[in-house]
Amino acid sequence: MTRDTFTLLCLLPLAIFTLAFLAIPIARLVLASGEGVDGWAIYLKILQTPRYLSTLVQTVLVSLATTAAALIISTTAGLYLVRNRFRGRSIILSILTLPLAFPGVVVGFMIILLGGRQGLFNQMLPGHWVFAYSVTGLFLGYLYFSIPRVLLTVMAAAEKIDPSLEEAARTLGAPPWRIMLDVLLPALAPALIAAGAIAFATAMGAFGTAFTLATDIDVLPMVIYTEFTLSANIAMASALSVVLGLVTWVMLLIARSLSGTTVAAGG
Amino acid sequence: MTRLTKVLPLLVTLLACAFLFVPIVMSVLAGLTVNYFRGLSSGLTLRWVGEVWTLYSGSIFLSIQLALACLVVTLILGVPAAYALARRPGRASRILEEFISLPLAIPGLALALALLQLYGSYQGFRMSWTFILVGHVLYTLPFMVRSVLAVLAAIDLQTLEEGAATLGAGPAQRFFDIVVPNAMPGILAGALTVVTLSIGEFNLTWMLHTPHLKTLPVGLADAYASMRLEVASAYTLVFFVMIVPLLMAMQWASARAQRITE
């Protein structure tokens, strides 16, 4: 057996698996989206039907809000943790990365414990403080699993910034906000765009969290789920899946080309 | 101004910590208190954990079984493939690596729909646990391949293999005696990632599971929807006890593998 034959043999099991369970199923999904009564015009129908269009807009808006909030919080915390060594730092770091392995359903439950009917806020504060089952709850849930992912990317990039740049700016008399704006943020920019793209893509596709919060809010994964299971509208469920998959794939492609890392999607 | 710029970041960090950690503590406490609504003063109990065990132990064992099977399959498919990709770096290899990484980018729900439409009518396959296994392998395989590939790309594979070849070792012997031991840190990191992700996988599994085949996260969704808060919390506690050590081991192994590639 020559070396080349052996190398090809090594690839064979993976190639067969990928063909049977990834390539052909995806092709089938794309074809199925065009097999409804509308044919390929179904993609036009998504934009023309108010319910689908508003779902699409709402999903993008919640994901954008999550991305912005996660970037602000995680960049602040990440920079602070990179530049300061203090007792308890490693504990804080462990807590902030703990939710990485939580599935979306568990994240949903965490939000219910905070803002549900029996939640912390409703028990501690006077009045009615139930926000878990609304768009606020969804936003908080997405934020919950985005913070650790963004934090890790930002910290990895911040550790590589040359501290002498900042020192130089300080000796030249730059105030802290100028250092932030002119030195730190430009150096972090690729990592921030990458982390933002990951957060956005994860929020767009998050199903478990929305499912647990059982909201009436239409977000894309929930609409795909109901179209498929309740309405048996296979063509529309497939078309919406293709759109969702394309959006998240392009986002993660951007992330990968800028930082070379992709933290697992999920939620 | 200076004080504000010093205090504000710490405040944000601590608030983020509280946001992530407080509900975890609440769920642990709720799973161990007699009556959550009356609070801790009602006393501590293991009753709810016991109830979870009688109700859901099947789902816990199914998840462990799936995770181990998933590990075996990703090892068999992933390690040789990573070796092949490392041996022949180039355009075709990059495209293949990108392609098998698609399940990281495409939401699990969409992948599950694709699998269901193609294989849903094969009842024997559809109803068996191997159908869920396919979903888990699809999702975790890229982590195994990339983890092993990163380590293999960092060592001088060519020289090692040529040395072994001059001593008369064939391709298969070189793979097992040279490649696998050298790739071990990557294999270990990949293996822990695969098991951790498989045990926590929900999005694909929810679509692929049948009423008789509930995994741990599927059981969690079930408990959140229909059980009292104490039982749901106790079940979450069981999940934390399983996943947190795995996550820590995974982070340790990944950091160790990364030191080789740098």
Q: Could you say which overall geometry of chain B the principal axes of the C-alpha atoms support?
A: globular
Oligomer: heterodimer
CATH topology of chain B: MetI-like fold
Question: In the CATH scheme, what's the topology name of the largest domain in chain A?
Answer: MetI-like fold
User: Class by helix and strand content of chain A?
Assistant: mainly alpha
- Corresponding CATH superfamily of the largest domain in chain A: MetI-like
SS summary, helix count of chain A? 12
Biggest sheet of chain B: strands, sense, closure?
none
What is the β-strand count of chain B? Answer: 0
Helix content of chain B: over 70%
Low-confidence runs of at least 5 consecutive residues of chain A: 262-267
> Largest interface, and how many residues on either side?
A-B, 89 and 85 residues
Described by the principal axes of the CA atoms, the overall outline of chain A is globular
Low-confidence stretches of chain B: none
Distance between the termini of chain B: 40 Å
At the first level of CATH, the class of the largest domain in chain A is: Mainly Alpha
| Helix proportion range of chain A | over 70%
Can you count the helices of chain B? 12
How large, in whole angstroms, is the Cα Rg of chain A?
Answer: 22 Å
Count of the separate structural domains of chain B: 1
Task: Name its key features.
heterodimer, A: 267 residues, mainly alpha, MetI-like fold, 2 domains, 0% strand, globular, disordered C terminus, B: 262 residues, 12 helices, 83% helix
